[in-house]
Design goal:
By secondary structure, this protein is mostly beta strands. It has one domain: Beta Barrel (Lipocalin). Helices cover about 0% and strands about 60% of the residues. A hairpin with an 8-residue loop joins strand 4 and strand 5. The protein is globular. It starts with about 25 loop residues before the first strand and ends in a 5-residue tail after the last strand. Bound molecules: protoporphyrin IX containing FE (HEM). The site of protoporphyrin IX containing FE has 21 residues, from strand 1, strand 2, strand 4, strand 8 and strand 9. Protoporphyrin IX containing FE binds next to strand 1, strand 2, strand 4, strand 8 and strand 9.
């Protein structure tokens, strides 16, 4: 079969995304997780931020178990994935730009965050969660992302299963590719 490969779209970074251009690329590293009543665990993660030329960065995250086997999981067993879009709006007055993040999770939950970007730090404080009747009860989360010595570091707190807002995850990822498309 003959296949004609036509040129793809021109992919420039939309200028509105300049405040979060430091996120672009593929990042890989390790994190630690835990929660009230849960033993701490370690995980590996790959995160990709890429431009489609439209005014939102596309985002994907994959994680996997690392360390001693537990609860049927061993090194490399798949853990959570999430996917979404990050966009930027001008801040009010002299305020910092606003970041809006839409995320979908494969376990019956979608969420939207709104926050600020200050330099190379994104603080996602305001969040709404919607969930199906069968999803675990997650009420609220907040996230902080930032560059630390060239690495992408983040911390995620959540209020779930009736428990107060507390740390669930934190990680430090190294940039493995600067490409703005995977
Ligand atoms: C880096 C991504 C993530 C990893 C590696 C991860 C990993 C884990 C692990 C290993 C557990 C232990 C229980 C189980 O095996 O299911 C867990 C529990 C849980 N996770 Fe995550 N998770 C991630 C992201 C998230 C996100 C984004 C949410 C919410 C939107 C979430 C909500 C929960 C909830 C509600 C529990 C149960 C807590 C409880 O029973 O008290 N997780 N997670």
């Amino acid at each position: 079969m003959d296949v004609t490969v036509r040129p793809g779209p021109v992919v420039d970074l939309h200028p509105s995304l300049l405040p979060i251009a430091f996120l672009l690329g593929t990042w890989r590293g390790e994190g630690v997780g835990g929660y009230e009543g849960m033993d701490a665990f370690r995980y590996g993660q790959e995160v990709v931020f890429f431009s489609t030329g439209r005014p939102a960065l596309s985002y994907t995250s994959h994680t996997w178990w690392i360390g001693e086997p537990r609860d049927g999981r061993s090194e490399g067993s798949p853990l959570a994935t999430e996917t979404g879009f990050w966009r930027v709006q001008p801040g009010e007055g002299d305020g910092p730009p606003t970041v809006e993040v839409m995320l979908a999770h494969p376990f019956g939950i979608s969420e939207i965050y709104v926050g600020d970007v200050v330099g190379t730090r994104v603080e996602l404080r305001s969040n709404v969660v919607i969930r199906t009747a069968t999803a675990r009860r997650v009420d609220r989360s907040q996230r902080l992302y930032g560059l630390v010595e060239g690495d992408l570091a983040y911390a995620i707190d959540m209020a779930a299963e009736g428990k107060p807002l507390q740390s669930h995850l934190s990680a430090r990822l190294q940039r493995v590719s600067a490409a703005d498309r995977p």
